[in-house]
Design a protein that fits this description.
Structural class: alpha+beta
Number of helices: 7
Order of helices and strands: HHEEEEEHHEHEHEEH
CATH topology of the largest domain: Glutaredoxin
Number of domains: 2
Helix content: 25-40%
Radius of gyration: 21 Å
Strand content: 15-25%
Largest sheet: 7 strands, mixed
Number of strands: 9
Distance between the termini: 65 Å
Length: 195
C-alpha cells in the first residue's frame, strides 16, 4: 500500500512538472507546527480570575487574582510550565533578581502554571519571589492566551498588558535562558509605561 501511494505521488509530481528532487525529500522527519492564537498586540486581553499564592502563603479563596482589578496599571502575565523545574526556576529567579529594573512598583507581574497554590507557595518561598503565582490546573486561561501545551503544561509565553487592558507586547516563545528575552521584555514594559 505504501509503495503504491509513493508511486502515485511521484507520478503526480512528474505530471505537474515538479522536479524529481523534491519527491526524494526525506519524509520520515516529523514536522511540528505551533499554531499561534491568543490576543494579538493591540487587542483586548481576555479577563480572568484565578487562585493565587505568594512567598507568604496561599491567597484567600474568596479573593482570587482578577486581571480586571489591575485596569489602569501595566500587567505582565508570564505563563510557564512547572514549579521547581530548571527552566522555570531560572526564569522566575531572574524575574525576582531583576524585579526593580524589569518591572518596578508601577507594574503588576503574575506567573501562571498548572501547579496547585500549595506548590506555588512553596516555590515562591524557596525563591523569595516578590510577586504572585496563579494556579490554572484546567488551563482555561492558558488556552485563551494560546499558552496551553498539548502535554498538559503551559508553554513559556509572556504578555505585557497596558493600563487600557490591551496587549502591548507578547513573546510566544520566551527563552528563560536568553538574556535578550529579558532585555526585550524590559524595553516593552518601559515603552508601555512611557519612560
Amino acid at each position: 500500500m505504501r509503495l503504491s501511494v509513493l508511486a502515485l505521488t511521484l507520478g503526480a509530481l512528474m505530471f505537474t512538472g515538479v522536479p524529481l528532487a523534491l519527491a526524494q525529500k526525506d519524509t520520515t522527519k516529523k514536522v511540528s507546527v505551533v499554531l499561534v492564537g491568543g490576543p494579538d498586540v493591540g487587542k483586548r486581553a481576555p479577563d480572568f480570575s484565578l487562585p493565587w499564592a505568594n512567598r507568604d502563603g496561599v491567597g484567600p479563596v474568596e479573593s482570587p487574582y482578577q486581571l480586571a482589578s489591575d485596569r489602569g496599571r501595566t500587567v505582565v502575565v508570564a505563563f510557564y510550565p512547572r514549579d521547581f523545574t530548571t527552566g522555570c526556576t531560572a526564569q522566575l529567579k531572574t524575574f525576582a533578581q531583576q524585579y526593580d529594573s524589569l518591572f518596578g512598583s508601577e507594574v503588576t507581574l503574575v506567573g501562571i502554571s498548572t501547579d496547585s497554590v500549595t506548590t506555588h507557595s512553596r516555590f515562591a518561598a524557596s525563591l523569595n519571589l516578590p510577586f504572585r503565582l496563579l494556579s490554572d490546573p484546567e488551563q482555561r486561561v492558558s488556552k485563551q492566551y494560546a499558552s496551553k501545551d498539548s502535554g498538559g503544561y503551559n508553554r513559556r509565553t509572556v504578555y505585557v498588558i497596558g493600563p487600557d487592558g490591551r496587549v502591548k507586547y507578547r513573546n510566544m516563545k520566551f527563552n528563560a535562558l536568553d538574556p535578550q528575552a529579558y532585555s526585550e521584555l524590559r524595553a516593552a514594559v518601559k515603552t508601555v509605561r512611557g519612560s
